[in-house]
Amino acid sequence: MDSARILDSCYLALPELGMLAAGCLFFLLGTMIENRRFWAVATVIVLGLALVFQIAEANDPETSGNWLLHGAATFFRFLGPVLGLIGTALLAPTGSGQARRGPEDFACLLVACAGVGLTGMAPDLVVLFLGLELVSIPVYLLLFLGKHDRQGQEAAIKYFLLSVLSSALFLFGASYVYGMTGSTRLEGLGGIHENLRWSETAPGEIPAARTLALLFLLAGVGFKITAAPFHFYAPDVYQGTSPAVAGLISTLPKAAGLAALLRLIGAGESALAPFGGVEWSLLWILAVATMTLGNLLALWQNNLHRLLAYSGIAQGGYMLAAVSTGGQAGIGAMAFYLAAYSLMTLGVFAVLAYLNDPDCPVKRVDDLAGLFRTRPIAALCLGVCFVGLIGLPLTSGFYGKLLILKTSIASSSSQGNSLFLVLAFFIVFNAAISAWYYLGVLTRVFLRLPLGPQAKPISPLPLCAAVACSIATLAGGIVPGLIEPYLRPVEKATAQSVAVDATVVVTANGFAGAIEQAPE
Amino acid sequence: MDWNLAFLPFIPALPFVAGLAALFTRNRSLASGVVLISTLLSVGLAIAVTMDRNRLVFDAELNGSALTAGQPHFEVGALFGGKISSVRLGVDGLNAGLVLLTGLVGALSVVASSGLKLDHANRYFGLLGILIGLTLLAFLAQDLLVFYVAFELTLIPLFLLVGSWGGPNRQAASLKMVIYTLAGGFLTLLGILAIVVQSNGGLDFGWESLARKAAVESTLVAPGRMAPGLIFLLVCAGFVVKIPLVPFHSWQPAAYAEAPTPVTAFLSAVLAKLGLYGILRVAFFLLPGEAATLGVTVLVPLAVLSILYGAFCAYGARDLKSLLAYGSISHLGVALLGLLSFNRVGVEGAMLHMLAHGVITAGMLFTAGMLFEREGTLQFSGLGGMAARHKLLSAFMVLFALASVGVPGLAQFGGEFLCLMGFLGSAEYGQGIAVAFGVLAGIFLGGWYTITMLQKVLFGPLKVHEENSARGLGVADWAILVPLGVLTIVLGLWPKPVLSASRVESGYLERQVQRTETSRLASR
Predict the structure, then answer these.
(1) What is the mean pLDDT of residues B356-369?
(2) Residue A435: its chain B contacts at CB < 8 A?
């Protein structure tokens, strides 16, 4: 591989590499410049540049049609920086913890955003793993740099250990794939069956190794999506950290996990069903278990962060449900719902970050009582985001649920498989259950009187982020027609059948080799 | 002709926008004035549009076309990007009367709220305006998505209205109401989506085209497709909670009792009809085959149960508002039976019954509110001998009470009579007899508890002795009571316009049901 090709490939991943480089620079220079505002502005500039470049690249005719860079990849590469911009506003006032710190938080944020993009565009199991780790490692740092109380330490250790475990599971699964196909390329996955090096099963049968590989890969990704039964860490971790970091943990790893999932099961050539069709049923079970468990456990929560953690688990279940329907429309619905969920959840955490005052902390649901009387704008933002999470009309949450339900009914009748109707029923029942605890919060915010002294916000920045999230939530529900066209390429690009490139790209070739364009 | 189609979007938009604007005013009278005037304006527009509509429907009948030839509707395609749904509004025989009722009761609720003691009154009136606008949108929608969106969104203003300005247990009551309705509503959403996806792949939510396909589609069963019977039950779930029918009613007495009286009036007179209307428009018209079989099997027992249970509970009620709440359950059961007859007599009768019940129950609740303003209680234990102190108010109360008992010549009689007649005309013999006994028992009990209520409240020894509470009717009170009183009498004496308004649609439903019946028999 000559240097010109490596440079070419790097150019294709420029936004992500740029964010990574900027992150490293932040870590280095952080010792010299302590001014928080400076670093926040620098982060916004980097993320903005990344977004501008993404837009330019998305419209670049030369790369269009390359599934590695378009469709779902474009979606995740946009989503990363957008979430990063909102996250910057959340982190800016106090950062990960109460102590004012230099640029480490922002550096972590940049690296995690780059990780989401890289996962979304990964052509190769190795890059996929790299992307996932790029999201996980900054999160350890954010958790560790944050609170130094017992809960904070517990959160950091818990997340670290379980995340390492999930990485190990993922790698184990990936090793099976490599063993079966002799390739780490994702297109190769589509041809697992043809490329089987060793197989004791007759053709047409699903070898057990393939199912095992899928199980381990799903377990690894499931941690990131907080799918049940890999969800145990979420409530403790959210509880042990600041609202800003909890907001980031609830969105960025989930986006990366779903991106990885799409890459694994649908990116190459979905018609081939790389894992022999087992993946849909496994995802179905995962989706139902995740949403039901998340919602039922959320009913008992009194702590806001724990409640939102369970809510995030449950919402992840809806996204898994969308993916499990197996159609391209399902992937589009998942993308819409992921974006909607991320903005709604970040909006809620932005309000909590805004109210984050060490003197009178907002921890329990009851601490929000009477918020509408004292801080009407923050309360309205909470209202919009929670109404969206319930799935009431005119919010993106409603439209997302509508899309998911539609695809599950449609794929049920097109595939003749009533299980997807059952899935739709599960979604509907879960939506009804979730309404109970979301409305419980809203009752306190809008109908109760304030209980004690009210928090004094340090900075209006998180409120601005919350307002932006609320406006986006409403826009996604009132004029989804504006956003829908952008989902079409997500669906189409994953549907394109791509010529299988069987060349073995070994790790030594590294990143550049992995990004190289697939031949037509 | 065409020019008044352009009025259609303004009918829901005026109160809605006025409500939004009122949220930001600081002045109570300004807020209420803006909402009141905009609601009255939209009533005016609605009258203009419905008057024109009658001529169009007449044309359609002459041409012999089935349902909606020349049916006026207005499309705002751009709002949803034209991708999923356009906002299609229209007036036809099913919604014309209910739109007028909504506007009227909405405007009167605004007037009736002028006497309430309210914190942040601007928000109250703003939310009321939004609620009226959304309800009008739900009734006018000719598109299932728009209908559902409006149907669900009414919950937000209701949640806040009941929860912020209601009685002492308002928060629990409002939470319960919203949870119940939401849970049902999500099931309805699933049903609606199943109809739309299975008939056109989820591209067109337009009611008209779906209704045309209905007779063919509803019997189609294939693996992986949701069975039409299941769809029917799903669609009904949300509406049955909204009416409510008996096993799904437990949110209602608390909500009615805790809500501010004008909001209760709007809930009972208008929003309960939204449930019946939804069953008729979505479940019956889009799934006529299932409605005639499964619908009758499931809904008739529920309706009879509601009639009897509601009547017994009303008899046992200790205060005026919960008596009216339970009575409402009982009366709406009769209207549902009328709809379930699937013949012109029953369906037209049900439309009349819905309007009459709206007028009468609004009248009862408004008078109850006035009584509450003067006496400070609605408990029967605290009231008595009111006829001596509030003579005119009592006269109106007696009028509405007699009408709700079903005295001939007043509004409710015709509707109840036709519902029962229609149902007996279509039901099998044994079932008809059983149901008729249930309904008659309910009507008898209705007379009993209503007259007992009059006796407890109006007659007998005076229990309260503060003289200052005895004041006559004000201008606002007259403005509320006179239109409702006049309508109570007019609808009783001259129900023909209401009955003939839905002639085309009820005839169409009758034919559709018969057609699916014959095709079912033929396929056997």
Answers:
(1) 94
(2) 178-179, 182-183
